[in-house]
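Figure-free illustration: sequence to structure, shown twice.
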Amino acid sequence: MTDLAKPSGPTRAFYGLALAALIGFIAYVGRGVIIPVVVAGFLSFFIFTLKQSIKRGPLIGRYLPDWLCFLFAFAIIGLVFLFIVDVVRDNVGVLVAKSGEYESRLRDLSGEAIAFLHRLAILPQDFMGGLDELRRQALGAVRPLIAQTGQALRAVTANFVTIALYTVFMLVERGRIFKKISMLSTDAQERRAVDETITDIGAMVREYVTIKTLINLTVAGISFVIMRLVGVEFAGFWALLIFLLNYIPIVGSISAIASITLFVLVQPEGGGLQTALLTLALLAGAEQLMSSIVEPRLMGRSLNLSPLVILLSLSVWGSLWGFAGALLAVPMTVTMMIILTQFKSSRPIAILMSDSGKVAPIKHLKES
C-alpha cells in the first residue's frame, strides 16, 4: 500500500469517532439483548475459573471429566444466583412498600434540622433557601430512586433463564470460537501468536473478575454481619447492594454506605443518629480495610484505570444502559484496556486509559 492510500491522522480519528458512535447507538438500541449477553460473558469467566479450581482440587478432582467439572461449577453459580433472586424477592417488595414510611420520617428529621439552623441564624437567608429547595428535591427523589433500584434488580433476576442459556452456549462454543479465530490466518506462527494472545487476555480478565468478585463477596459478608449486629433492617438486601456497587470504584462504595447510613437514620425501630454514625464508622472501616490493604495486595493494582476514565465510563454506560450499565461499566472498561495492551497498534490507547501509564507487557509472539 502506498503512502497516498494510507489514511491520515484526522481521517483515522474520524473513523474512530464514527465507529464509537455506531457502537453506542447499537448498544443503546439493543440493550435488552446485549446486557444479558455481557452478564453471561462474565459468568462464563467465573464458571470456567471455578471449573479449573475443581479440576485441580484434591482427592478426586483430577479424575473428574471436564463436562462434570463444568456441571459442578454451573450448579454452584446457579445456586448463588438463586440465592440472590430469593434475597431480592423477599426484600425489595417490602422495602418499596414501606418507602412512604421512611420518606415521612426523613421529611420530619430534615425539617427539624432546617428549623434548628433557622433558629441559630448563623447562615445567610439565601443559603437557607437553597437548603430548603435541596431538601424538597431530595425528598422527591427518595421513592423513585428506591423503585428504580428495585426494578433494576428484579430485571436482572427476571432474565435468569436467558442469561443461563447464553452462558451455557458460550461455554459450549468457547473452544470452537477460539479455534475458528486462529484459523483465520494461514501462517503457523501467526496462529500460535493468536492462540497465545487469546489465552493471555482470557487469563488476565479472569484474574481481575474473579479477585474483584471475591473481594466484593468478602466486603458484603462483613457488612451483613455488621448490619445484623447493629440492627439494620433489610440487611440482606443492603449487603447485596454493597456487593454490586463495589464493582464501581470511587463512587460505588460511597453511594452504598451513604444510602445505608441515611436509611438507618430514618429507620423507625432501632434507628437514629447514634446508630447511623456507628453503622457509618463500621461499614466505612470494613470497606477501607479491604480496598486499601487487601485488594492492592491481591490485584497488584491490575485495575490501574485513570479516575477520569472511570468517571467517563460510568457516565457513558450509565446513560446507555442505566443502573445495569453503571454496574458493568468498569469491568467492561478494564477488559477493554487489557485487550488493548496486547496489540502494538492499540497499546497507546491503553496507556492513556491507565492511571500510572504502566500497562501489562505484550505477551504474544508476533503482532497479529
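We now fold a second protein in the same way, so the two outputs can be compared directly.
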Amino acid sequence: MLRLTDPQLTLWEELLPPELKVLSEELQKVDELLDDERFLAPFAERFGTTIGRPTVPIATYLRLMYLKYRYGLGYETLVQEVSDSIQWRRFCRLSLDARVPHSTTLIKLTKRFGPAVLEELNQLVVEKAREEKLIRGRKLRVDTTVIEADIHYPTDAGLLADGVRVITRTVRKLKDAGAAVRTEFRNRTRSIKNRLVEIGKVLRRRSGEASREVRKITGEMMETTEQVVENAKKVLKNAKHYAWRTGSKKVRALTIKLEEVIRLTKQVVWQTQQVNQGKRHIPNRLVSLFDKEARPIRKGKLKSPTEFGRKVLLQETEERIITGYQVHTGNPADDSLLQEAILHHRRVFGRSPWAVATDRGFGSKDNEQFLVDQGVKRISLPRKGRKSKARLQHERQPWFRRLQRWRSGGEGTIGILKRGYGLRRSRLKGTNGTRIWVGFGIMAYNLRRLATLS
C-alpha cells in the first residue's frame, strides 16, 4: 500500500527544546520546496494501491534521497546518520521513536520507481522555480559529459577472467540447488588467476617483448575459457531438464543467468581472437559482463582520453539551474543533440532562449539555422575546422566572446556535479540505473541551488 505522508507525531516531539526543532537554513528551504503536493503526484499515479504492506512514506523517501546525494552517502551510512541525528529525523518526517527505513528497502524502492519518475520530479522542480520567479530561462548553455559505469578497466584478459569466475559461481549455485549434480565441471578459476599474475609480472618488465608475451598468455586464457564454456553448456542442458522436471523457480532463474553469461563469454572469446589476429577495431565491443550497454567514449581529455559509460547532455540557465538532461547510450555526436535541447527548453519555458552558448562540438550550419528559425537572438556556436575570414570576425565580436566566457562556467557546474553529487560514476548498473542515478544527483543539486536563490 502506497503511503504519501506520515503525519503522526509523538509526545516526545513536544518535549524537545526549541533549539532542536530548528532545521538549518538549507534544509528548511528544501523542506518547504518538497512540501508541495505535486511532488507526490508521480508516485500516486503510477504506484497508488490500497492493499499490501504500507510502503515508506514518499515524503520521507524523497528527503532521505536528497540527503544521500547531497552528502554522497551510501545507503547504510545514510540510515545510520539519520538514526543518530534529531535534525535529520525532523527533516525526513521521522518521529524520535520511528525506525529509519532499512537500506535494502531504499534500494528496492529506488529501482522500483524507475527513471521516468525522476524525470517528472526534475521537471516539477524546474516548474516550481519558474512559478516562484527564481529562474527566467533567457540564456541557455548546453554541454555534454561522461558518467562512468561501475566497472573495472576492460582488458581481454580481465573480461575472460570475469566470464570464467561468473560461470563457475553460477554452476556452483545450480549444483547446490540439486541440478546437474553428476555433470562434471572443473573449477579453473585458480588457473585463470595465475595467468593474470603472469601478465602483471610481464608488464612490469617494460620491455619490447612484453606485448607479445601478454598476447600469448591471453591466448592460453582464451583456450581455458573455451573449455569452461563447453563444460558449462553440458551443465546448462541438464539443469534445464531438472528445472522442467521439478518446476523449481530458483533453478530456472539460474539457468537463464547461466545461458546469458555463456553467451557473453563466447563474445569475449571471439573479441580476443580478433585482437590476437591483429584486428583492433571491433564494432559494438563488449566492455563488461556486468553492464552490457556501457560503451567506450573518447572526450579528448589528457588524463583519461577514453572513459567507459554513457554520455550525458546537460542544459543550464543563467541562474545555474539544470533545466534538462539526457542520458545517451554510446557516443552520439554533440551537434546531433542540440535541436532536441532547444525544443525541450521551449516546452519548459514556452519560448526560445534569447541567447544560446555551446562549445565547438555543437557548431554546425544546420544548428545555427535551426536556432535562427526558433527565434534565438544571440547564437554563440564556434565552428569546427578551418574558418573563413568573415567567420573569424563574427566569432571575435564582444558579445560572442562574452557568451563563450559564460559558457565555460558550465564546466564548473559539471565539476560540482561530479565531485559533490555522484555524477562521476553511476553506482546503479544499466542505462535505466544510470538515468535514476543522474536524475537524483541533478534533483539534489537543483534543490540546493534553489534554496540558495530563494
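Summary for the second example: The chain has 17 helices and six strands.
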